[in-house]
Amino acid sequence: MKLAIKLSGKVLDEPALRRALGCQVASLAAAGHHLVLIHGAGKQLSDFCRERGIPVRQVQGRRITDTETLQAAVLVFSGVNADLTVALLAAGVPAVGLAGFAGGLTVGRRRPPLTLVLQTPEGPREQFVDFGMVGEIVETCPRLVELLWASGMVPVISSLCCEGGQILNINADTLAVELALALKADRLIAVSDVEGIYRDPSVAASRISRLTAAEARRHLAEGTFQDGMVPKVENALRLLERGVPEFQVLSGLGGDLAHCLEEGTGTLLVA
């Protein structure tokens, strides 16, 4: 199978977690699957900036990236990529660390300023927002990944793109989706600090192991999902609508990734 695996920065902070993930990826690679890993590093970037007095500014969960923040992002993302790559190599995975712009993997453009509707105590109001050096992917060329696969390698990709000679910060989830589509991946796996999608996040037994798109839409309409589960399900449905055959949410804090293809691991959404 072709598996695109998106790793949240939340599961890459500790060396022990990276070592454990390396062993799990090694088991998938040994089974003969074509793997591409895409990682975030939002937590690490925010920590880095706060330690150095660089303002951390976000609007509706999206980071504003000025020149200083971009310079920090290049340093932090490269460091996280290196740490993950060496953990994989130590586990016997022939990993190759790359930026999202390497070999023309992606072509981006700077996101234009937007007018957003923000909720305030006085009610909704419009605000003009310039996200700065943040990119949107306009083209994806998977040739480099395919060449690495043909050589038995596992690409490990950080969330940077470029426009001309300018590096841009991009959302790791967006990068993972675009690469999964370009590579015609069989499944996109989101690895974070949650074990799946729940009817009620406060009740462990309410995790749903498998959902069709039709079932997910029905649950949304009936108000089954609570709190932060609603945007997770809505985002998953958009991925399926764009052509990703299967989307899975699982935890990177245990051993779930090694068992991702076993029934009942995490939450699997299918078209």
Characterize the structure shown.
α2 (42-51) packs across α3 (67-90). By secondary structure, this protein is α/β, with parallel strands linked by helices. The protein has one domain: Acetylglutamate kinase-like (Carbamate kinase). It is 34% helix and 30% strand.
Q: Assign the structural class, choosing from mainly alpha, mainly beta, alpha/beta, alpha+beta, or little secondary structure.
A: alpha/beta
The overall pLDDT, averaged over residues, is 92
Question: And the CATH topology?
Answer: Carbamate kinase
Span between termini = 17 Å
Please work out how many helical segments DSSP would assign.
Answer: 7
Provide the gyration radius in Å: 18 Å
Please provide a brief summary of the model:
The chain is α/β, with parallel strands linked by helices. The protein is built from 7 helices and 18 strands.
Keywords, separated by commas or semicolons:
271 residues; alpha/beta; Carbamate kinase; eight-stranded mixed sheet; two-stranded antiparallel sheet; 7 helices; 30% strand; globular
Layout: helices, strands, pairs:
Elements: E1 2-7, H1 15-30, E2 34-39, H2 42-51, E3 58-59, E4 62-63, H3 67-90, E5 95-99, E6 106-110, E7 114-120, E8 123-129, E9 135-140, H4 143-150, E10 154-158, E11 160-163, E12 166-169, H5 172-182, E13 187-192, E14 197-198, E15 207-208, E16 210-212, H6 213-222, H7 229-242, E17 246-251, E18 267-270
Parallel strand pairs: 1-2, 1-13, 2-10, 5-10, 13-17, 16-18
Antiparallel strand pairs: 3-4, 6-9, 7-8, 11-12, 14-15, 17-18
Helix pairs in contact: 1-3, 2-3, 6-7
